[in-house]
Amino acid sequence: MTSTPAADAATPTVRPMVLIGLGLVIYLLSPGVTSTTKSGDVTLHGWDYLPDWAGWLLIAIGTWAFARKLPSFRLMLGSALVAMLVSAALWVPAWRDEIRGPGADPALLWAVSLPALAWLVLYCLALAGLSRPEPGASFWWKYLAGMNAGAALLPVLVYGGKITQLEGLLAVLGLMGAVGTMVFSFYHSGRAWAVVRRTS
């Protein structure tokens, strides 16, 4: 699923992991629930000036450039596009407040975040495969894949099994998995196995 694609005989021209990293920055900078303009917020009357869907658009473009030669490409691009559509729907202040508001069901918030979590896991697994020539990098991508998978699956126990003691671990996995994926996307964007090359 994460086999390394054949290299193109050409000069490196694009670093799609930078686009993906920028998209993740926007995704992680979501202001949450706001209904009025406040100093320091990036919203006006609840409308986000830095919407998640813009981040997912960058991620989808980066995924297309980066992963189109990988066997997991359709799943990766599909999950990115679904995440973009979900975040576009949640851009509407009333809907966002309904999902993320004080009285909202956290299980519902987890459910709508599943496409994003699926993309994170697939992306990290793809990088773990591509970076095999560099064992240290491959280790970190496998580690991040595990953290993001934990953030995707642990809510089954927390919300379904009512094991509330795991809520802290869930919060750590969700935040650190996404932040780590963003950081290493920038850090590894110039590696030979991460650069898209122009065909001759």
Structure at a glance:
By secondary structure, the chain is mostly helical. Helix content is 63%, strand content 4%.
Tell me what you see in this structure.
The protein is mainly α and 200 residues long. The protein has helices at 16-28, 52-67, 73-89, 93-100, 106-130, 135-160, 167-187; strands spanning 12-14, 43-44, 47-48, 196-197. A two-stranded antiparallel ribbon has the order 1-4. Residues 1-12 and 32-43 have low confidence and may be disordered. Keywords: Membrane, Transmembrane, Transmembrane helix.
Q: Return the domain count.
A: 1
Approximate helicity band: 55-70%
Q: Given the C-alpha coordinates, what overall shape results?
A: globular
Low-confidence stretches: 1-12, 32-43
Count of DSSP strands: 4
Beta-strand content estimate = under 5%
Number of helices: 7
The strand order across the widest sheet is 1-4
Q: Mind describing the biggest β-sheet?
A: 2 strands, antiparallel
The Rg value, from CA coordinates, equals 18 Å
Structural class: mainly alpha
Distance between the terminal alpha carbons, to the nearest Å? Answer: 27 Å
Overall mean confidence score, pLDDT: 83
Q: What string gives the helices and strands in order? A: EHEEHHHHHHE
Keywords: Membrane, Transmembrane, Transmembrane helix
Transmembrane segments: 12-30, 50-67, 74-95, 107-128, 140-160, 166-187
